[in-house]
Amino acid sequence: MSTITVKDGTEIFYKEWGAGQPIVFHHGWPLSGDDWDNQMMYFADKGYRVVAHDRRGHGRSSPASKGNDMDTYAADVAAVTMHLGLQNAVHIGHSTGGGEVIRYMARYGGKGRVAKGVLIGAIPPRLARAANNPNGVPPEVFDGIRASVAGNRAQFYRDFSSGPFYGFNRPGTKILTGVSDNWYRQAMAGDIKAQYDCIAAFADTDFTADLGLIDQPVLLMHGEDDQVAPFATTSQSAVKLLKHGTLKSYPGFPHGMATTHADVINPDILAFIRA
């Protein structure tokens, strides 16, 4: 099993294969690098070196009772990329992973390390309602998530993966039991304390300043029926803060569209990388 030990002693798991320009995948909450299996197979076949890590306290990385914040997440990614000697990489992040990409690019993306970024259903500029984000998701939504994770995360993760995450709660949507089961498998492999702390990281982190610091091209992809990170208050706002941002929205697509609609999303990412 491939791991590195970062400064505070936390072990970060990663997997990689292929050769060529690196693509680094950043997963969403509360999942693991396995959420990118489809994309890793696809892009390796197209001639890229693919890398995915498990965020601290998630998946196969060691439990983490501290450092469950965006600054540390980005530092962990920097440690992985330095260990692997990655240059000219494309960083792709979904949901919370999209925030991680932005913080990483803003702080560590210079000196030829990063070529481009891709955000899919991502949380920037800020997910939760705040004084500078009056249309954000109400704080009581996140209070409910915290209570559910602390009280019975197994049932909450079942309900979340079989409902709004993939849009399986929408009338007429084909239910893919294997997809929701795989989500549940990844979620339950993680450490509850790290997952609980991460709620504050994805809800309350403000990426406004980070977005303005990024010089590389960034593609923002977002489902217009995203029930987790609402399109209008996330990507539609974030693209205006980027120097070189491009927004592509998908009518009717859910938060987990990289899985449910990989046949559409993967070629669109490839076209952006090759452009």
Q: How would you portray this structure in words?
A:
The model has no long low-confidence stretch (mean pLDDT 98). Strand 3, helix 1 and strand 4 form a beta-alpha-beta unit. 41% of the residues lie in helices and 16% in strands. It has an eight-stranded mixed beta sheet with strand order 1-2-4-3-5-6-7-8, with helices on both faces. The protein is α/β, with parallel strands linked by helices.
In short, what is this structure?
It contains 10 helices and 8 strands.
What descriptive keywords fit this protein?
about 280 residues; alpha/beta; 8-stranded mixed β-sheet
The percentage helix is 40-55%
Uncertain runs with pLDDT below 50, 5 residues or more? Answer: none
Quaternary structure of the protein: single chain
- Which structural category do the helix and sheet elements fall into? alpha/beta
**Helix tally?**
10
Mean pLDDT: 98
Please report which band the strand proportion falls in: under 5%, 5-15%, 15-25%, 25-35%, 35-45% or over 45%. 15-25%
Secondary structure layout:
Blueprint: E1 3-5, E2 11-17, E3 22-26, H1 37-45, E4 49-53, H2 70-84, E5 89-94, H3 96-108, E6 114-120, H4 139-161, H5 177-189, H6 192-204, H7 208-213, E7 218-223, H8 235-238, E8 245-250, H9 257-260, H10 262-274
Parallel strand pairs: 3-4, 3-5, 5-6, 6-7, 7-8
Antiparallel strand pairs: 1-2, 2-4
